[in-house]
Model the fold of this input.
Amino acid sequence: MSARLNPDEWFTGGASVGDLQRTLATAGHRRLFQRAIEHASAFRDRVADRPPRPLISAAELQARFDGPTPEVGEEPLAVIDALNSAAEPGLAGCTGPRFFGWVIGASQPVGVAADMLTSAWGQNAGAYACSPAAAMAEKIAARWLLDMLRLPADSSVGFVTGATMASCVCLAAARNAVLAQVGWDVEADGLQGAPPVRVFVGEDAHVTVHAALRYLGFGSRAVRIPADTQGRMDAPALRAALDQGSGPAIVIAQAGQMNTGEFDPVADLARTCRRHGAWLHVDGAFGLWARTVPELAELTAGLEEASSWSVDGHKWLQLPYDSGFAIVRDAAAHRRAMSITASYLPPAGEGEYEPGQLVPELSRRARGFAVWAQLRALGRHGIADLVRRHCALARRVARRLATEPGVTVLNAVPLNQVIVTFGTGTVEECNTLTQATVAQLQDDNICLAGGAQWRRHFVLRLSLIAGPLLEADADRLTSAVLAAWRRVRSHARRRQAVVV
Ligand SMILES: Cc1ncc(COP(=O)(O)O)c(C=O)c1O
Done:
């Protein structure tokens, strides 16, 4: 063994050397990885039969993880077993067919397997020099993504943790670029004393867009543009708002409203933005994948005209967490906003690619491997089939729910999201019944979905997005919702407390 590989050279404490030697002797990486794969496979084998909502209390779960600060290292196989048994009862069933909460993809096996390799390879994707393979996987996956999403081919793509960070990156590029138009160099001079930037956001924008604006120094004062009953930004209202002033401006639209699944009229908004020299960003966390489906062309029309887009990999692309893409038409503006230079980071050579210049982190996970693998495994047609299937199933669920007395589907279901209220009385009475129905559904734990506020209504929100769902899965969801509602309704009737 060379001196550098001799564990005696790594530690000075005798106990640590002993621990490490025991580790190497009793559990080499092969046995450890195999054990992890056994646990992972056992979890996946059972996930369809598990209650989708974990039943364990926080106190019980804490007790499983808790213990004194480790002083002496333990046998690694035992540690992996202990991790598995501590975590197992607290794991949600989001990779299974009974999970319809939030907007969560199913971490499909190919992406997971690629992600396991990514961890085992242990690459730092901060620079080409650190890991040429990680950089090249991102370069090619970025090209495929742009092609599949039908976005301008010379846009830049930053592989980030999710749509929140993607919006943050895109809006940083936006902020700097619109200020550069009026002669202000944010990269050199920062923001203090900069000309004001006008920011316009639809009233039903996702909360993470507002978070991104806060991170970037815009505070919470973006102008909120009214939206219609389905959450679509009112294009004439945006025109009027932009006409009221002048100067650098950013408009944030959305493709796929979290509750209704609706799209802002982006083609119209893009025309207005062009007239005002405004940057148009689109939050398309899940909805942007609708671009892969020809039948949804009308819904997604004009999206290619925006200046930047954020989209998740861990939603409709079914990649394991975490994965998102910050896509910017003006690649130079993107790079200027994010670049990090240092003497020890050699610039990219001929044919090389620097993924780290498009994201906020220096050291970073090599997310491109899983993206590359998943895009190959599904292909353009596979992704389109998945999106198409989820949308059809959402319509099926909505249709069936709507035939039940007292159930109202509030959205037009243009995509995969369905929002539902229960009851026929006042809004307040319906909100009470809907809350009770969501609680009953979660107690029954046959299928999992949650509640949300939509305008004045408390709604049950169903997201059909996880994995290869079948009609039987959608029908089980419908039955579970109806069973919960019928229980709540008969209880309410017995109490005669509210109109049902
Ligand atoms: C429309 C929209 N934008 C942004 C986000 C945030 O995405 P992430 O949690 O992946 O950062 C979501 C999450 O559901 C979303 O639906």
